[in-house]
Amino acid sequence: MSIRKLIAGRWGARADQYDDIKTDAATNAIAMLEYEHYQVHNGSSFKAHFSNTTANADDHRSAIGFSMPNTTKWIHLIIEVSASHPAEVFIEEAPTIDNGAGTEQTIYNRNRNDATTSTVVSLAGAPAAGEVTTFLEAQIAAANFVAGTILEHLILAGGQGPKAVGGVSRGSQEWILDQGVKYLIRMQNIGATINTHHLHLGWYEHVRLH
Were both Cys, which of 12, 56, 63, 157 would link to 135 (CB 3.0–4.6 Å)? Predict the structure, then answer.
């Protein structure tokens, strides 16, 4: 008599929400998704980006700002940046910057078949979930900006990127941001040169279980 061995996995909270875990027919290996890849399929992975060409002025800035909801649904953020000429990048926590001073931009769900909206909140005059706020130099200058805690500072050589902020693997790049706090991802010129800035933010959202 043959003995059949089964490995089952849960896909939901109910007792009946489970199924057999299948293996690859050629190798008998179990096919698995990395957790952040699973979040794309699950409709909990999001993207926002901003591109801006500055004037030929030293320290001219481009930025993306947003606020975290005061809940335990935290975002796990990675950032990629590039610039056509030398620039520096800052991740700032709890900066002072006026709401309503920038331009709102939609956050996109990376699963385009899923209607889930990000919980990240814009820095608009009437803050709204599912949006970030972008800033040009003139908008930052008029927004009573004061830098917050500098969590990360990266120097970009001219024409460098895309480059991840923080490290070479997701484990060293990822930031889990504090609930109920403002954040600003800011790039500024090094030298008086017309510069094209690119800021790419990607994250998934996950409720802490314990």
Answer: 63
